[in-house]
Amino acid sequence: MKLLIMGCGRVGSRLAGLLDADGHEVTILDINSTSFRRLPSEFNGTPLIGNGTDMDVLRRAGIEETDVFVAITQGDNRNVMAAQIAKHVFNVPRVICRIYDPLRQELYNTLGLEAISPTTIFAEMLKERIEG
Amino acid sequence: MYIIVVGGGRIGYYLIKALLDEGHEVLLIEKNASICENITEEMGSVCICGDGCEAATLADAGTDRADMLVAITGDDEDNLVACQVAKYKYNVPRTIARIRNPRNEAIFKKLGVDVAISSTNIILEHIQEEVPTHPLTHLLSIEDIGQEVVEVKIPPEAPTVGKSVRELSIPQASKLVLVIRKEGKHRVPTLNTIIKAEDRILALTTPESEEDLRNTLRGT
Fold first, then answer.
1. Which domain holds residue A115?
2. Interface pTM, i.e. ipTM
């Protein structure tokens, strides 16, 4: 599979490493080149500097041939915007984005985005642990 | 009308002032507490401090009864999300977003923003307008019918100078509405109107046929 990940933070870099190790073709975008130091040393994919809410940057990153687009920067709104561009402009078959705010996550799920809220998931997980 | 404005920068400040003067009910949502304080001190309680993209803040603002939401922060993505939350969660009938990257205009409209205003394009247009040789200036965009009013300048050496409007094949989608002569006189053009050097011709047209119109009028 061809994947494009936007945001090379802790989660993004780790995801990129895992998918790359599984033999997928991974491109990872970040606006800051220093973020790429988080990638594992054996990473074979393509790190690319640029803003993923800019359509030209996405095109350069090969979004037109991408099977899966993941928006996982720190900014909920940035993720939402990039994910919608990927889905509605470039018709990427599968688009996943992270939205910390549970209310916004719910809204965008109803609007057809595959949005995940780590806040909800983590809170539920902690609750389960605490209550046993 | 009840109008919510997201973003209390310079544009937000002057916008709420103007809207209040027009007698509208206005509420500003601004993240920065000290900006909120200053505005409250000057204009009364027209401001709440918070994130205008967050559904909870918009609920506090009574967004469900708003007639319009204007998002004019400096970040395109924040403006997009504020408009989308307003539109799809609170059914606000009209949403307006400021955009900085002109390329975002089409996608914003596709994603449910009623009007996307590119501050970059507006400034560019105004500067280009001041360049004497600039052939076509956008004066007004009439979004809901997909048309625009433009001004075309006729250079002295244009091959169309001395010809009548009848002799030019003006594109069907365009309508000439006013000719302003060099000396400041103006007339409503008819088929018999003769094009003169340094005329400024105002026309109603569509974005698709503006290039055709410009070339026809200037004979290029």
1. 2-131
2. 0.89
Report the alpha-carbon distance of residue A37 to residue A32 in Å, rounded: 10
Dihedral angle, C-alpha B59, B62, B68, B72, nearest 10 °: -50
Domains in chain B: boundaries:
2-120, 131-218
Contact B81 A56 (CB under 8 A): no
CATH code, domain with A39: 3.40.50.720
Residue of A nearest to B81 (CA): A77
Residue B120: pLDDT band by 50, 70, 90 thresholds? confident
**Which chain B residues touch A76 with a CB distance below 8 Å?**
53, 81
Q: What is the CATH number of domain B2-120?
A: 3.40.50.720
Closest to B66 measured CA to CA, from B87, B52, B47, B48: B87
For residue B111, is pLDDT > 80? Answer: yes
- The answer to whether B2-120 and B131-218 have equal CATH topology is no
Q: How many domains does chain A have?
A: 1
Residue A88 has pLDDT above 80, yes or no: yes
Weakest-pLDDT range from B82-86, B96-100, B105-109:
B105-109
Indicate yes or no: CB of A111 within 8 angstroms of CB of B53. Answer: no
- Minimum-distance CB partner of B85 among A54, A89, A107: A107
pLDDT of residue A132: 83
B169 Rama class: left (phi>0) / alpha (psi -120 to 50) / beta: beta
Number of H helices, E strands in chain A: 5, 6
B53 touches chain A (CB under 8 A): yes
CA distance A90 to chain B (A): 11
Q: What is d(CA B115, CA B141) in angstroms, rounded to the nearest whole number? A: 11
* Contact residues on chain A for B110, CB-CB shorter than 8 A: 88-89
The answer, for B84 touching chain A at a CB cutoff of 8 Å, is yes
Decide which of 3.40.50.300, 3.90.190.10, 3.30.70.1450, 3.30.530.20 is the CATH code for B131-218.
3.30.70.1450
Tell me the pLDDT band of A73, cut-offs 50, 70 and 90. very high
Contact between chains at A107 and B103 (C-beta distance less than 8 A) = no
pTM, 2 dp: 0.81
